Amino acid sequence: MSTVIKHPKDFWTGVIFLVVGLSAVFIGRDYAMGTAGKMGPAYFPTVLGGLLSIIGGIAVFRSFKRVGEQIEKFHLKELFIVLAAVVLFGVLMRGAGLALAAVVLIMISAYASPQFKWHEALLLALAMAGFAVLVFVKLLGLPLAVFGPWLRF
Q1: Which candidate, 91, 89, 112, 115, places its Cα nearest to that of 102?
Q2: What is the pLDDT of residues 16-31, one digit of tens each?
């Protein structure tokens, strides 16, 4: 890595923020902007993308001024485990329902951690699944099945 960049973590975080923010602004440019009082479909992604780009620009700028840590090892295995858990959550939502999909998501995601313990992960998964059902189905009234058609015998 070049010695010009003194804080590689800030630099690459800023680059990621810039890419995501500018992508949101670019994608939203074809939609109607609207006003703050009557927002169009481009308003939210453009404003949020602009703010994210500003934060990214600041992080990149700071990376040249502030000395910081080097980037650690990139954990690909753990990244793919969590990604697989999220994809499986999406697949299970329709057939198994929110409760089981949330438990599976949390158990598989927790397995990616080196400190994984089955009993702790299961307690967390059950508590979070109950919380998700309470908030999204009961309090917000979203039309999500708590238990999907796969679990109705």
Answers
A1: 89
A2: 999 999 999 999 888 8
Residues 6+ apart with CB under 8 A from 88: 101, 104, 105, 108
Is there a single domain that holds both residue 23 and residue 59?
A: yes
Residue 89's pLDDT band, with cuts at 50, 70 and 90, is very high
- The closest of 143, 52, 151, 6 to 92, measured between CA atoms, is 151
Residue 122's H or E segment, with its range, is: helix 118-132
Whether the per-residue pLDDT at 44 is higher than 50: the answer is: yes
Range of the domain at 109: 76-151
CA distance 27 to 35: 18
Domain total for the chain? 2
81 plus 146 within the same structural domain: yes
Token code pair at residue 94 = 């329709």
Residue 141 lies in a domain: yes
